[in-house]
Amino acid sequence: MACILIVIVLAGNFTYAPSMVDNLNWPAEVTRSADLQNIWQQTDSNICLDFHGDPVAARLVIFSDGNHHMALLETAQAFLKLHPETVDIFYATTPPSVLIKSIEHNGVSIGNLKISRNPDVFIAPDSVMGSLLEKKLISTHQAFAISQGNVLLIKKGNPKNIAQITDLLRETVTLFISNPQTEQASYRVYRDTLIGLCEESGIDINLPESKLDAERKDMLFGEKIHHREAPQAIYSNAADVAILYYHLALRYCRIFPNEFDFIPLGGTRESPQPSAGNVCSNYHAGVVNSSENKSMANAFIQFLLSDEGKAIYESHGLRAAI
Question: How many domains does the chain have?
Fold first, then answer.
């Protein structure tokens, strides 16, 4: 959608019209409060949510899949306090394919800006880390956290009266799901959960498969980064419900309590109990072979495995892997 900038002159001062698109107002996600002293952004054209920190000053760089970004933020903040010599931690939280290509092609371009810092630590589901091993980008990796299955994110007040997985098959309900081409890892988790829970409910497997047909009008696929797109789609009424990791839905309800709610798919809101059909993901971390700061990278991974690191991730709705 084209955005028209309207300038109104009032008493010699320039006042800009608000954004032409009704966007969620995301909270700042920075490791250092000083980074908030000079912010320049415009929501409709120039805003960057998933690259955090100072790529020049940082002495530790982390590339991570994005769905646990809230836990990674708090972990980075705590680690920085313990290791002020790190100066800053620059970390990226996009789909893994983007970050792998960044290593292979010496950087990633964000609009007209190119960032060519290579990571010291890579974090991703175990299947992705296996591909990094094959590419010889890492030599080993270790599990540190596990998700607690998936839930249904809905608008506050539940206007479509969605109560269970079978409600997603109603033609009047538009379901958001991550993109099968650009976010293969999360898409597989969500697709397999939909199919698994439908099977557990005794629903013909052909129904959820047809629901995942890109031609269906009651289906909305994300474009590139579903952990931002899913809540925005529901907020703007482009979708009625999204299937999401429990910890992501918990995050949205905490930072946007007047906008969202979620429906557990096993257990309760406070204590999820995912069944076998509700897929859980393992998160692994490894030191990148090209890292020039392997000692700090190893220290960060040990912090992830420490009691403090585990407690941070558990406070955000994940479980410790060990």
Answer: 2
